[in-house]
């Protein structure tokens, strides 16, 4: 059985009330019914004077439709939904990329939360644009050896050629069990770099926290499925390697007074109102 199939079973069994009719009600060819989910969220934001969350979902794993409803954005909204000060999916400007996090006040300063669910099934992440080589903040990560891979992007009828910046994790002082390109980790290291640069620019030396929240199947079900269990063990090893004291990631965070918090693992089954009413 494939990892994707095991994961889908673990998610589904974590939601005992998810029968076939309820699942179909929340899907329409792999997409949520926006009038049932997106509009209440936009109304929630509007009432609190913050930007609305644009919801666009697709069934990334077409063979496992249950994964399509385990959206990290949806789980993020529901998990932090009772915090009226939270700015969901706030875009952070760093002149190169506009990563989005959920922003809220924390005891030590501003807190920026990055939520993940089924995204960790993939080890293929969008590469960095070569423009990062001109960024002073990116230069602080000390990447010296890299390759530039020709890429082509399309936006409607517009075709754009560009080059992707790729490098080994060793360039960041990360000691992993095997030589691996940073785009092959379950943890999206490129995105973490984008977040750190954006937070450094936004907070300008003021204390901040970067908090990752991983939404998971219920713990007993993770142990039930060997490949899912191995996935989370590998993710934890990656996190330890990436955030070790002497890595470029950790050094950058300390320099800019950003605390990379210990990740939270939250069971999907514990998230209130995860499913739409029957």
Describe this structure in words.
- This protein has about 280 residues and is of the alpha/beta class.
- It has one domain (about 70-270).
- Helices cover about 35% and strands about 20% of the residues.
- It is built from 10 helices and 9 strands.
- Strands 1, 2, 3, 7, 8 and 9 form a 6-stranded mixed sheet that branches. It has a 3-stranded antiparallel sheet with strand order 4-6-5, with no helix packed on it.
- Strand 2 and strand 3 (about 110-115) form a beta hairpin.
- Helix 1 crosses helix 9.
- The longest helix is centred in the C-terminal third of the chain and has 17 residues, at about 225-240.
- It starts with a helix and ends in an 11-residue tail after the last strand.
Quick recap:
With 278 residues, the chain is α/β, with parallel strands linked by helices. It contains ten helices and nine strands. The strands form two sheets. Strands 1, 2, 3, 7, 8 and 9 form a six-stranded mixed β-sheet that branches.
> How many individual helices?
10
* Averaged pLDDT: 76
- Rg from C-alpha positions? 19 Å
End-to-end separation in angstroms reads 31 Å
Unreliable residue runs: 28-37, 48-63, 93-99
Shape: globular
Major β-sheet annotation: 6 strands, mixed
H/E element sequence: HHHHHEEEEHEEHEHHHEE
Category from helices, strands and their pairing:
alpha/beta
Q: What level of helicity do the residues show?
A: 25-40%
Number of domains: 1
Query: Strand content of the residues, in percent?
Result: 15-25%
Describe this protein with a few key phrases.
globular, alpha/beta, 278 residues
């Amino acid at each position: 059985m494939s990892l994707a199939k095991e994961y889908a079973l673990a998610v589904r069994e974590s939601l005992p009330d998810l029968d076939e009719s309820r699942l179909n009600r929340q899907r329409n060819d792999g997409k949520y019914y926006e009038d049932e989910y997106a509009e209440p969220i936009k109304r929630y934001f509007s009432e609190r004077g913050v930007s609305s969350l644009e919801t666009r979902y697709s069934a990334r794993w077409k063979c496992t439709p249950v994964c399509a409803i385990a959206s990290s954005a949806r789980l993020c909204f529901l998990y932090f939904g009772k915090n009226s000060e939270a700015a969901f999916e706030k875009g952070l400007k760093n002149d190169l990329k506009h990563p989005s996090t959920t922003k809220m006040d924390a005891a030590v300063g501003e807190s920026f939360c990055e939520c993940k669910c089924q995204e960790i099934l993939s080890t293929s992440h969008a590469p960095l644009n070569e423009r990062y080589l001109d960024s002073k903040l990116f230069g602080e990560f000390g990447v010296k050896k890299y390759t530039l891979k020709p890429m082509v992007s399309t936006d409607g009828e517009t075709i754009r050629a560009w080059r992707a910046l790729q490098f080994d994790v060793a360039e960041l002082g990360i000691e992993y069990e095997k030589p691996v390109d940073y785009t092959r980790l379950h943890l999206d290291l490129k995105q973490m770099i984008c977040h750190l640069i954006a937070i450094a620019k936004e907070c300008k030396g003021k204390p901040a926290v970067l908090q990752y929240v991983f939404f998971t199947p219920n713990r007993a079900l993770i142990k039930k499925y060997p490949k899912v269990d191995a996935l989370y063990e590998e993710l934890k090893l990656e996190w330890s390697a990436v955030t070790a004291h002497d890595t470029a990631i950790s050094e950058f965070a300390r320099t800019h007074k950003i605390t990379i918090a210990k990740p939270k693992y939250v069971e999907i089954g514990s998230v209130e109102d995860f499913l739409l009413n029957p």
